[in-house]
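MxaD protein
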Amino acid sequence: MLQRLALAFGLLLLGPLLATAHGPTPQRADETLAIAAPPDAVWKLVSGFGTIGDWHPLVQKVAVTGGEAAGAERVLTLAKGEITEGLDEVDTGAKRLSYRLLKENPEALPVSFYTATIEVKPAGDGSEVAWSARFYRADTTNEPPEDRNDEAAVAAMTDFIKQGLEGLKAKAAGK
């Protein structure tokens, strides 16, 4: 009886420790920007999986393999290295492009995985572009270093998306 009581007490003490031993929670970045250009013109800039290098200021180079359909891959060269993304869907009717991270590089972008969607919608005389991403931090251990924690991942992904939207806006305006 005493052994059972000791075991039960031990399990009660371990319970809170086990509850804190979990992995990272998914993070998100959602940004929207109005662009003074027709949706078809903005979609033409966004819809090519390899065209991100034409308008995103942080993308130095793009190499696409597999065409422009689901299953295609692109390697983006950023200031601190390369990442590889895979195209999940191009929905021309909805003007929506979805992709995911296939090969991470925490030095280039402090995330371990993400899925992202860019969608172009009509808004007044122009367009509204929504870019959303769901992701995990680069270091998925319970105590990541500051440059690979949730805050670093959110800051980096939000900056990447915001700069991309501003670059897209400038490109659509002919700048």
